User: Fold this.
Amino acid sequence: MEPPIEVGADLRPDVAVRLASQGVRLLWRDDFPAARRLLAAMGKRLPARSADFYRYRQSRRNRARVLGMLLVELGPDLRIDLPRAPDVRDAVRAAGGAPGLVPLTELLGMLSAHEWRVKGVPVPELDARIHPHYGVFSPTRQDYVSLVARAPLPAVRTAFDVGTGTGVLAAVLARRGVPEVVATDISPVAVACAEENVRRLGLPQVRVVEADLFPAGRADLVVCNPPWLPGAAHSPLDAAVFDPGSRMLTGFLGGAAAHLEPGGEAWLVLSDLAELVGLRTRAELLTRFAAAGLTVVDRLDAPRRRFPGGDPLAKARSREVVSLWRLRP
Assistant:
């Protein structure tokens, strides 16, 4: 890899975009706020809109690649030795960062994530805040949480929350009176995040374990809110939205019946966004239920939301419906 070229405030945004598009890395050596302004100006020259969803994703990947060429340097103590640079040490440590060159976009993501972690995300259903860690999907959308909070709760002694993330759904189930909740996640970062949240909320009936989908044993209720779009994940943020090959959806549906006590229910929280952008049909989803030996008992829908923007994803989300499917073997 070629070494980066050192740049400063005299670099024009159009030149920066041209160089970055050619794979030239740009190491910023000037005032830190000016670097943020340059990044914003570069972004305006890289439109990510397209009438086609697949081209839209491609343009988003290209945009991320180009903007990721603007770098800053983290010193041995994780400080940025630039005029008016913020103290980023806590945010970088929390994200598992290390000294060296880092894309400015990535650093800003660390700072934003750390702010959410410190302040927390208000969750009305808990009358409390959930504190997401870097790389763990933040429950800023409340529709799926509300569905789990209001769905008719059968007689439940034990519940599994599969793919718990921050632990928000496990916490909701515990607050609803479930005596024992086992929350799982394949990501060690998510496990640590969920453990911290349930401890902060004072919910000893929630146990968090690292597992690929289901824990050992059976439960009266198994809940899963998988990524809503089948497709490849190209970034950590994508991993919360895209389910490559529908692996998690297929695994949950295929294993639900074997992990349910007699008379138990599986709750699948899923958006119809994949259907709206042509990645899956409703018929395919219902066929998956049948193939897993599951029958639809009921479906609860959250109110639609408005999303600004003119790209295909924003337009689809304006028609999106998030549903909780109640399933039984």
About this structure: The chain has two domains: 5-116, 120-328. Residues 104-119 form the longest helix (16 residues).
